[in-house]
Backbone:
């Protein structure tokens, strides 16, 4: 795969041109496995788009549509239970205590489009979330919030998980964390993502530490 | 100008005219702190317009700022459409499950009658009573969500984006309904005594949508809507960026723009000069952990960049101060504006 392929794929995503994106996927060589396409083309394109949003040159609508298109494409060639999906820790994602789903949907799309698989808990409150994480023996929990009071509740999640002896890595994201780059530490998270494409790098770093 | 003889209204009008008043006007866009002032839980506070009147008057006396904020909370408009409002003890009321659950619901969406909707009537009553208290000495700022931005609460961000890109006919219908409501709601607040309307339009910010999309949709809706609002307006991006669309925002006919703390305030001021007054842009989230010294430094920095020449109102970047911001920080901001915001701002020449 060349930079030109990534350029063309990125352009197709930004133009919300599903057909062009699909054609690039279909033109990949027979020696390029789905997971390799995800790693070499999809992820770099999504990272570029995420970086563009952070820099203020791209809009959230473009990030969102790019993630949705990629998730659909990758699902076609790499179904959820495909053994080719990455060998990975048990992960889950949720929205804590508010009803704003966009951030969670984008991270979920980006991760699945990059070959990861994870449980989607939807909207959760603190106690239910802690119980579910313990029951599912989750290793990495991603929490998305929009409202500051929701972000502050993450501290209680961390404390309650620790009391139950659950060694869960918490990755947090959402507007309050982008406006205060110290807040993720205040709430006891292990890492924060500034945008959806950050999640892959953050998870891979945590996985290195777990190995 | 003699500082003591100038009312907040005069101060604000002078700066909106792109001239230097006696001091930098200060808009403390605080809603939840009113509940703290009167010692009530947030839900109880907003249940009675007299609580809000008392809360706003106490905030005005305490922090010596330059506006009354008759805004209750954003989901009041969702409640008007029959949606759910979730109250919290420590934050702004939040919208619950979307009122538009599937695309087909849009066709059945009716424009709420603003004068016969109890949650809106409370806001109008509070506005009227606040006007009786301050008369024309302090501007009363009413709030509407833009027709283009309201659907985030009506149907959720994700479904709204899907609608925008995939179902243009339903999207256009939703804009018509929302525009009719927005106009009726804005004009009812003005009739009740609001001096100006703050048109919250974060979806138009370049953080959320591209300039192309803004020009195709958000801009046109804003221009049409603002032209029919019977009073002055300010457009607020609620923490979203807007530098690339400043000229377009000015062309909608709005008088001022509320900008993000992520903006370069020097560039914003240059882009807005003589076209739009700038409102902003202290970081409300970071404010929760500021010291008094931090507050003073941030106030001085933003005044240095945006104060000279007038056309500037110091405020937060979101249009709502988080409940977690300590009173001491708000007081430090107020004191710093009064200390460092006196025109002429000769001290800024050294910066």
Residues:
């Amino acid at each position: 795969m060349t930079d030109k392929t990534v350029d063309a794929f990125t352009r197709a995503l930004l133009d919300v041109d599903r057909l062009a994106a699909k054609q690039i996927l279909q033109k990949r060589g027979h020696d390029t496995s789905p997971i390799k396409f995800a790693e070499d083309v999809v992820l770099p394109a999504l990272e570029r788009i995420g970086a563009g949003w952070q820099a203020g040159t791209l809009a959230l609508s473009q990030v969102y549509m790019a993630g949705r298109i990629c998730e659909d494409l990758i699902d076609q060639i790499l179904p959820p239970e495909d053994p080719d999906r990455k060998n990975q820790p048990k992960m889950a994602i949720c929205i804590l205590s508010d009803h704003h789903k966009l951030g969670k949907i984008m991270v979920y799309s980006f991760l699945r489009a990059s070959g990861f698989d994870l449980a989607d808990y939807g909207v959760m409150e603190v106690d239910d979330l802690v119980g579910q994480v313990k029951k599912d023996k989750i290793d990495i929990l991603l929490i998305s919030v929009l409202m500051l009071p929701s972000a502050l509740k993450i501290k209680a999640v961390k404390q309650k998980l620790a009391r139950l002896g659950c060694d869960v890595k918490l990755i947090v994201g959402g507007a309050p964390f982008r406006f205060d780059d110290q807040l993720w530490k205040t709430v006891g998270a292990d890492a924060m993502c500034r945008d959806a494409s950050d999640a892959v790098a953050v998870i891979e770093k945590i996985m290195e530490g777990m190995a | 100008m003699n500082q003591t003889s100038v009312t907040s209204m005069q101060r604000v009008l002078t700066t909106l005219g792109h001239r230097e008043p006696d001091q930098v006007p200060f808009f403390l866009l605080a809603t939840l702190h009113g509940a703290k002032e009167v010692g009530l839980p947030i839900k109880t506070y907003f249940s009675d317009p007299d609580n809000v009147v008392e809360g706003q008057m106490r905030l005005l006396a305490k922090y010596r700022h330059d506006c009354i904020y008759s805004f209750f909370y954003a989901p009041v408009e969702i409640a008007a459409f029959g949606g759910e409002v979730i109250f919290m003890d420590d934050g702004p009321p939040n919208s619950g499950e979307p009122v538009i659950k599937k695309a087909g619901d849009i066709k059945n969406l009716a424009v709420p009658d603003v004068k016969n909707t109890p949650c809106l009537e409370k806001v109008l009553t509070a506005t009227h009573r606040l006007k009786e208290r301050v008369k024309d000495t302090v501007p009363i700022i009413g709030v509407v969500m833009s027709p283009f931005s309201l659907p985030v609460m009506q149907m959720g961000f994700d479904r709204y984006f899907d609608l925008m890109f995939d179902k243009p006919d339903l999207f256009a219908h939703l804009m018509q309904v929302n525009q009719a409501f927005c106009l009726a709601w804005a004009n009812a607040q003005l009739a009740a005594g609001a001096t100006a309307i703050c048109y919250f339009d974060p979806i138009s910010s370049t953080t959320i949508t591209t300039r192309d999309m803004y020009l195709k949709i958000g801009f046109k809706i804003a221009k049409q809507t603002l032209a029919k609002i019977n009073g002055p307006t300010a457009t607020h991006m609620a923490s979203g960026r807007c530098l690339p669309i400043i000229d377009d925002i000015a062309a909608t006919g709005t008088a001022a723009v509320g900008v993000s703390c992520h903006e370069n305030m020097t560039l914003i001021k240059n882009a807005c000069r003589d076209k739009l007054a700038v409102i902003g842009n202290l970081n409300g989230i970071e404010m929760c952990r500021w010291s008094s010294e931090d507050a003073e430094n941030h106030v001085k920095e933003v005044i240095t960049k945006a104060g000279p020449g007038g056309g500037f109102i110091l405020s937060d970047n979101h249009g709502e101060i988080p409940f977690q911001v300590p009173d001491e920080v708000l007081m430090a901001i107020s004191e710093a504006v009064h200390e460092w915001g006196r025109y002429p701002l000769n001290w800024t020449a050294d910066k």
User: Anything to note?
Assistant: The interface with chain A takes residues 86, 88, 90-92, 94-98, 156-158, 161, 164-165, 206-210, 213, 239, 241, 243, 261-262, 283-286, 288-289, 322-324 of chain B (CB under 8 Å). The mean pLDDT of chain B is 96. DSSP finds 14 helices and nine strands in chain B. The CA atoms of residues 106 and 170 of chain B lie 7 Å apart.
